[in-house]
Amino acid sequence: MEEFKYIEILIEDKSGEILCRQIMDKYKMTVKEFGYDIHGFKGIGKIPTKIKKTTQIKTKRLLSDLPLYLTGIGNRLKNMPYKTAIFVILDCDDEDCVELKKSLVKMYNQLEIDTNVVFCIAIEEMEAWLLGDKEAVQRAFPSAKQQLLQKYVPDSIVGTWEKLADIVYKGGVRELRKNATSYYEIGLFKCECAKKIGMELDIRKNESPSFNYFVGKLDEFCEVK
């Protein structure tokens, strides 16, 4: 009998959670004996300078709370009778991806937990995973600006969510900012894109290297060949 496999995913915001759930539902359709849960946060925060395993106060910011969540989830998963792991998904934004990864691994090592943790960093933002499937963007937004969409280079540092807005929002990011009375409304736009494009994604045909790294790590964990 095939071994059951289970992961818990930590992700930094609502739109990312929506997209990740779409991806994981598609992934689960092709992989047997596999389960997952997703924990969404309200922003990125910063890795604490002093690692506190149990006394930390929750902020609902992913990096700020990460030691607390990794310790708690790790302690719970290590007693499970099947293969487990934690996946942490975040944007690199303006950070150097290599240095961010080093900081995350250093923090993980300091925690000394038994559960395997996989860090997946979207370059530069998770909207890059949406733009990595141009056909999905076209299906979700038939009026998308084709010239801009075709010019986009996967995982390029161009202000990714703004680039997506220029492609799919009438009047582009400038009009979106004019119509939005707060960042909350921009967040709603991001959630709409995550939902609509996420539904259309082909997770095996994406041009984003950081997206393919994530799926590759899933395959590695689930022993998919």
Summarize it.
With 225 residues, the chain is of the alpha/beta class. It has helices at residues 14-28, 62-77, 97-111, 127-131, 134-140, 146-151, 160-168, 172-179, 183-200, 209-222; strands at residues 5-11, 34-40, 83-91, 117-122.
Write up this protein.
With 225 residues, the protein is of the alpha/beta class. 50% of the residues lie in helices and 13% in strands. It has ten helices and four strands, in the order βαβαβαβααααααα. It has a four-stranded parallel sheet with strand order 2-1-3-4, with helices on both faces. α1 packs parallel to α9 (183-200). The mean pLDDT is 94.
SSE arrangement:
Elements: E1 5-11, H1 14-28, E2 34-40, H2 62-77, E3 83-91, H3 97-111, E4 117-122, H4 127-131, H5 134-140, H6 146-151, H7 160-168, H8 172-179, H9 183-200, H10 209-222
Parallel strand pairs: 1-2, 1-3, 3-4
Helix pairs in contact: 1-9, 5-9, 7-8
